[in-house]
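User: Fold this; tokens only.

Assistant: Input:
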Amino acid sequence: MFYLIYSEDVENSLALRMSVRENHLARLRVLQDQGKLLVAGPCPAIDSENPGDAGFTGSLIIAQFDSLTDAQQWADQDPYIAAGVYKKVTVKPYKKVLPA
């Protein structure tokens, strides 16, 4: 089943994000290589693909896991949490309908 992982950043998180970004992306690449990643990416703080110093307000990941518990455990181990990037992480089951 798919699970939605929505994480909200602390204020002025850009420097924290950049300090562990490669470790964060490495974990996502593992999911991608396993064929489990539907989509992943950050939420720009401004209406721009490249927000520059404005940074980001959070991130969205939708990926397959065996259970809600497994998805939560995976999310809890994100390097962004250890670095203090995220102030809140929400994990919910997600049902993909479209595109089919």
